[in-house]
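Tokens for chain A. Residues wanted.
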């Protein structure tokens, strides 16, 4: 195991498979549930929510009306929540049709979201170093933590994925993913995801954003905004001396 002086485990991505991904998708949320990959995309006038097999064209896709700016999403079972950035609402959708079920007020900036089933709560981010806990039915705030690596807060927390009591968070605009202890806010692992795209595959704004655990495995799907590829990966120990 490779660890830093602050006790944080150092991991890297090991690519198992390369999948296709829509290079026009400004990826904001990514989650696997019951064999279906759900993806939320952003930008006003271009936001959407999609569902289908990983690496294939979505079988269902719904555009969000302008000026809504889509952000993170998370699946609760028969419905999912999709956040908006600064539009002041969150949208509950039917997971089969992706049609709207209802809208609820969401006064905070929407960034990432995931469902922590072990504690029956949503975890959301707002671009700061804080993770907020919410009632999964009403989105009412029930608590929160500040994420720290050692003594330093970790800002720019973006897309989230809950796995048991851990929360994985993309850190904007880096190629790094943090694994966070949701009880304390302590970073327990720093995952290096550099080098996945070639330089000629990158465009302006094409940052890492999108992490989905593959249920029943230790694998994850990761992608980014405007990325032409998605990667099925394992998180494995970094080589000694890696940062």
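Reply:
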């Amino acid at each position: 195991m490779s660890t830093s002086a602050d006790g944080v485990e150092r991991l890297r991505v090991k690519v198992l498979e390369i999948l296709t991904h829509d290079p026009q998708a400004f990826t904001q949320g990514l989650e696997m549930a019951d064999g279906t990959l759900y993806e939320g995309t952003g930008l006003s006038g271009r936001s959407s929510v999609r569902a289908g097999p990983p690496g294939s064209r979505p079988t269902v896709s719904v555009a969000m009306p302008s000026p809504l700016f889509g952000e993170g999403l998370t699946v609760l079972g028969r419905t999912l929540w999709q956040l908006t950035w600064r539009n002041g609402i969150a949208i509950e959708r039917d997971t089969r049709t992706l049609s709207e079920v209802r809208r609820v007020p969401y006064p905070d900036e929407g960034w990432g979201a995931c469902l922590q089933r072990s504690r029956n709560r949503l975890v959301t981010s707002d671009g700061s170093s804080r993770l907020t806990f919410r009632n999964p039915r009403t989105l009412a705030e029930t608590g929160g933590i500040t994420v720290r690596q050692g003594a330093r807060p970790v800002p720019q927390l973006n897309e989230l994925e809950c796995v048991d009591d851990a929360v994985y968070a993309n850190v904007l605009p880096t190629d790094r993913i943090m694994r966070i202890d949701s009880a304390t806010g302590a970073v327990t692992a720093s995952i290096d995801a550099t080098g996945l795209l070639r330089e000629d595959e990158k465009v302006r704004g094409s940052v890492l954003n999108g992490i989905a655990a593959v249920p029943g495995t230790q694998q994850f799907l990761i992608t980014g905004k405007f990325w032409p590829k998605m990667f099925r990966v394992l998180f494995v120990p970094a080589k000694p001396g890696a940062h």
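The chain has a mean pLDDT of 95. The chain has no helices and 22 strands.
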